[in-house]
Amino acid sequence: MERLTYTLAGSRNEDIEIAGIEQDSRKVSRGSLFVAVRGTNVDGHSFIPQCVEAGASAIVCDEVWATANASAINTETTYVVVKDCNLALAMLASAWNGYPSEQLTLVGVTGTNGKTTIATLLYKLFTKLGYPCGLLSTVCNYVIDRAVPATHTTPDPLELNDLLRQMVDEGCAYAFMEVSSHSADQKRIGGLDFDGGIFTNLTRDHMDYHKTVENYLRAKKSFFDGLKKEAFALTNADDKNGEVMLQNTRARKRFYSVRGAADYQARVVEEAFEGMELQLNGTNVITHFVGRFNASNLAAVYGAAIELGAKNDEVLVKMSELVPVNGRFESIRSPKGFSAIIDYAHTPDALVNVLGTIREILDTKKEGKIITVVGCGGNRDKGKRPIMAKESALRSDRLILTSDNPRFEEPLDILHDMEAGLDTEELRAKAITIADRREAIRTAVMLAQKGDVILIAGKGHEDYQDVKGVKHHFDDHEVVKEAIG
Asked: Is residue 382 predicted with pLDDT exceeding 80?
């Protein structure tokens, strides 16, 4: 792997002792190396004087800052001048931990939807195949069977490489991780040695950060552009952006599909709320999963396992034992004969997929209505709010708009944005707005009759509501079970 070389400035030489690497100025102490990262809201360069005062042995800064402050550089400190502090931090974190990603078979999963499911199922599959594995995901990180709470989809480089180091030290052979668009854009994954990459799909999300879909796509694509030629690049042939992801990759190109010809094909034979029979490259497998979107996820898992050298028959047997990830199309059955499904769907496309699956199954039974409870997060992409409300209303018999994680926005303001998508009398007639999420779920349960399905979307595995910067305990599973009684 290419190593990073630096240009040094200041009176000190390269032979200095570093006690640790920090990107948070508040954690800097004597002997620290501080990397001044330019973040979305805060620029680390503005804290360089405080870090020098705190005794930092070295400062990593960019050329713009170094040029502007040449006359004020402290001669007792070594300054490392680089073009990209984000990339420098990632590569320093990897080097500091002994390049752990090179000592693992590391596979990254990126895309708008399906990242958590695919990464988690690969972790579970290879564990069942007898390998010690690590997982880096939105829900929780795992070092073999030891849980490490997750704070971001992809951690910052220091935490990320520390976790990979722990995996190596504890004997992991494989590691599977979600690669978010933020982490790719911010070079958090810089310096990592990936042995494979998987692309799921790309639909509107994170416009508050990326601003345009083109920027969002480029961030995802940069992950594949950086793969080595010995790695595999597995992409969804059913997504229009699938081939785009692989245009400039050096890795071997592979495709999976639920619609047409591909290296790894999945076909839905039969499905119910309890699971579906799936045909994978010609062999039928009974699974505990539901929906064509999950058929696509399982095709990706199957394809990645084969690309990693696992034996076909063993993979198929173990895939039949896999169960859904927490908060991903989880079904809770009521004694009264209706079902509640909890799903993390928080984008228009994800809602369309989940509601489409529910409708297909209900149509085969020729009974039951869909009641959807959905909200949108605050301080995030406002443009998707009316779209999510409209898509939900179009595919549901009743719709309850409610709060998700309002963060620092007023819940009613978010709900008004959603209501704007209900642009016909027919759609408005289906919907009611209940800002209190607990009351919204209780109302859905009261409305449900035998054969109906309640979809509670948006939060999935989360066990909190983020209000004004405080995370209050709130678990959709608990509230549903309490309401059902």
From this structure: yes
Q: What is the pLDDT of residue 40?
A: 76
Closest CA to 342 of 434, 412, 444, 485: 444
Query: What's at 185, amino acid-wise?
Result: D
Q: What is the pLDDT of residues 180-231, one digit of tens each?
A: 888 888 888 998 999 999 999 987 555 555 568 788 888 889 999 999 999 9
Helix H or strand E encompassing 400 = strand 398-401
> What does the chain come to in residues?
485
Q: Is the pLDDT of residue 72 over 90?
A: no
Torsion, CA 464, CA 187, CA 51, CA 163, rounded to 10: 60
Q: In the block, which residue shows the tokens 């959807």?
A: 372
Taking only the tens place, the pLDDT of each residue in 259-290 is 999 999 999 999 888 899 999 999 999 999 99
Whole-angstrom Cα Rg for the chain: 24
Beta partners for residue 60, in sequence order: 35, 80
Q: For residue 62, how many C-alpha atoms fall within 13 Å in the half-sphere facing its CB?
A: 14
Q: Provide the pLDDT for residue 207.
A: 57
78: closest CA among 63, 61, 92, 95?
Answer: 61
Which residue type occupies 41?
N
For residue 407, the 8-state DSSP code is: B
User: Average pLDDT, whole number, for the chain?
Assistant: 91
Residues with Cβ within 8 Å of 134's Cβ and at least 6 positions away in sequence, in order, are 104, 123, 141, 142, 143, 144, 163, 164, 166, 167, 172, 174, 175, 176
Residue 433 · residue 421 · CB < 8 Å: no
Q: Which domains does the chain have, with CATH numbers?
A: 7-94 (3.40.1390.10), 98-319 (3.40.1190.10), 330-484 (3.90.190.20)
Burial of 272 (0-12, 13-18, 19+ CB in 10 A): exposed
| CA trace torsion 395, 401, 403, 404 (10° rounding) | 0
The Cα–Cα gap between 390 and 396 comes to 10
What confidence tens digit (pLDDT) does each residue in 140-187 have? 999 999 999 887 767 899 999 999 999 999 999 999 999 988 888 888
Residue of 387, 377, 347, 370 whose CA lies nearest to 462 = 377
Q: Determine the straight-line distance between the first and last CA of the chain, rounded to whole angstroms.
A: 57
170 and 144 in contact (C-beta within 8 Å)?
Answer: yes
Written in H, E and C, the secondary structure of 291-356 is CHHHHHHHHHHHHHHHHCCCCHHHHHHHHCCCCCCCCCCEEEECCCCCEEEEECCCCHHHHHHHHH
